[in-house]
UniProtKB/TrEMBL annotation:
Organism for this UniProt entry: Micromonospora profundi
Entry protein name: Pyridoxamine 5'-phosphate oxidase family protein
Superkingdom: Bacteria
InterPro entries: Pyridox_Oxase_N, Split_barrel_FMN-bd
Native organism taxonomy: Bacteria, Bacillati, Actinomycetota, Actinomycetes, Micromonosporales
Pfam families according to UniProt: PNPOx_N
Amino acid sequence: MRETPEDLKELQSLLDSSLSRSTSHLRSIITERTLTAEQLTQVLTGMCTLALSTVTAKGEPRISGVDGHFLHGKWHFGTAPSAAKARHLAARPAASVAHMRGEDLGVFTHGTVEILNPQDREAAADWPDLLNYFKDFYGDGDDAFDWDNDVVYYRLHPHWMTVYAPDVDKLTAK
C-alpha cells in the first residue's frame, strides 16, 4: 500500500460521494457490498487489467485493455504514443476504466486523465518516483524499452468511483 492518510481520506470521500450520487438501482446493489478506501488499496496491488474506454473524434466509444496500477488512490496506466487510445486521450481526456475479477470484484471509475510524461512539456512532479516503480515492477529496468519515447503514462483523476465486492472477507483475507 502506497497511500498516505490524505490519499485514503480523499479516496473514501470519493467512494462515499459517488455512491450517494448513484441511482437507487446501483445503490441497492452496491450498498453493503463494497469496500472502504483502505480495503480497496489492500486489494488493488500490483498490475490490474483494466478495460479503458475512450471516445473517438466522431463521438464513438472505444474500449481497450491496459495494465493498470492503483497508486495513491488513483489508476495509472500506459500505452504507446502511436496507439489510437493515446490520440483519443490527447484530444478528449475524459475516460472510464473498469477492473473486474469475475463476480468477486468490480471497480468502476470515471474521470479525466493527466499525461505523466509528456514529450512536449515538463513531466508530472512525481513522475521520477512513478517511473522507478514501473521499471521495478516490469523487471527490465532501462532495457524493456525507451521509457522516454516508447510509452506514455497517464493518471486518471476520478470524479466518480464505485466498488462492488459481495464477499469482503474473501477479498481482504491474507
